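Today's session is about reading a structure prediction critically. Students often jump straight to the picture, but the first step is always the sequence itself: look for stretches that repeat, for charged clusters, for runs of hydrophobic residues. Only then move on to the predicted structure, which in these notes is written as discrete structure tokens rather than atom positions. Here is the chain we will use throughout the hour.
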Amino acid sequence: MNKAYRQGQILKLIHTKRVQTQEELENELSALGIASTQATLSRDIRELGLAKTSEGYRQIEPEARGPDLGAILSGFLHDVRIAQNLLVLKASAGHASSLAVAIDQAEWPEVVGTIAGDDTVLVIAPDNATAQTLKEKLLAYL
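Below is the predicted structure for this chain, in token form.
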């Protein structure tokens, strides 16, 4: 496993579970098939800006955020099409990545993930009904 993947899994773990110690973190990663040493975990914790709180490890340093999702959607989104559980978003040329990043950072539970091209974003929803709900949510910003 590479560093970026491991650190992504660490963030996912601390957002979904109460992880109090490095040993617990190591055990959780191990259960995911990710081997790591104490030194590696210490470095990851420092690089990710994690701190121990009464609720376990939490990310303290704010992430670099771009413009507001509403501003991105109203400025660049031209069309939303549904294909089963997939949404195809048409954006201004060169702005699909900005749109995908803004959607990813919103961390909507309806979004499994996004893939961006130059003027098109593929948004993956878990099922067809959720895709329809997501379309309505996106269009509400326009």
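Discussion point for the tutorial: The helical segments are 3-16, 22-31, 38-48, 69-76, 96-106, 128-139.
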